Amino acid sequence: xxxxxxxxxxxxxxxxxxxxxxxxxxxxxxxxxxxxxxxxxxxxxxxxxxxxxxxxxxxxxxxxxxxxxxxxxxxxxxxxxxxxxxxxxxxxxxxxxxxxxxxxxxxxxxxxxxxxxxxxxxxxxxxxxxxxxxxxxxxxxxxxxxxxxxxxxxxxxxxxxxxxxxxxxxxxxxxxxxxxxxxxxxxxxxxxxxxxxxxxxxxxxxxxxxxxxxxxxxxxxxxxxxxxxxxxxxxxxxxxxxxxxxxxxxxxxxxxxxxxxxxxxxxxxxxxxxxxxxxxxxxxxxxxxxxxxxxxxxxxxxxxxxxxxxxxxxxxxxxxxxxxxxxxxxxxxxxxxxxxxxxxxxxxxxxxxxxxxxxxxxxxxxxxxxxxxxxxxxxxxxxxxxxxxxxxxxxxxxxxxxxxxxxxx
Length: 409
Known about the structure:
The protein is mainly β. It has helices at 2-15, 42-45, 325-328; strands spanning 19-22, 35-36, 74-88, 93-111, 116-140, 143-169, 172-194, 201-220, 226-235, 237-248, 254-263, 266-276, 279-289, 301-303, 305-315, 330-339, 342-344, 349-361, 367-379, 386-400. The protein has a single domain (2-400), classed as Porin, CATH 2.40.160.60. The protein has 3 helices and 20 strands. The strands form 2 sheets. It has a 14-stranded antiparallel β-barrel with strand order 3-4-5-6-7-8-9-12-13-15-16-18-19-20.
């Protein structure tokens, strides 16, 4: 099994930095640092994104580090995410899609009797993927210029992390992780004008992010089969180095370099779950505060809090190898409501979604997980487009016992 884990590690290390294909995504990712991924896991995305207070021993939680204490084996997790978007206005519509490898994570279950685990890896924090075209018409005296403005963005922010979990008493799990925020956001703006006295211009900007943060969490079990969870993440100012190139048909290209600091959002969340038989019910609230972020502020746009309410149900598969395969599958369902952090003319952009997914046992403790999310983004301003989206998240987790619990007198 260790050879298999190492093979998966090498495979994903080779392809981790490449998008499989990218043809555009959500046009709302033009604001700020793009779309925020509240977690990057097929299991928890299928539960409406609920992850703060639902323990699962075969999954590595990417939100609340206290839940690493439930790992029963050393595990490796790797995933893939595909997004399909329909951008719709009153007069037109556009299909856009993109897909990418979704991070890799290791969880070392050092001492299961005390919930002591060491977890490290990286996952997607935000993603930028938009393509917008807008017609241009300018009148100069009696001469009219026609053309198009093209706006395109890609990239995003990833998070690397290293942390531990521990259970000091039977009813309390604690966890903490050092987080590094890094990544590149690329923007490409082109103005193409037709006419005898017209020329085209291109502006290309690449922003490189590097910063640190700290994530803490706890899980409290007041009585059997009930769990209260909490997490808090604080981020320092992130350094951003910017390279901007201006290209104009009538002059030489010009490149500028600058560096600044950006306030990354602090976040927190509260969750509750309750187990009845083999069924887990869970609900949670989370918030990320972008009010201080001074990055990519478009005209008429401000940044505010991103708030999310979610609910999920998980029907756990049987652990018995003597039952039918369908009875060993875990079934997950969820829903959520989210307010995106950009505000245009002070108006909100709301997101609604339904989700479902499965956890399929493979061989031994290996699992293949699938999550599907379908929803819509509806701005309060009619002039902005409505988006309908579908997401497919696939992941595989492999596990093996590498450590034996310490002997205690």
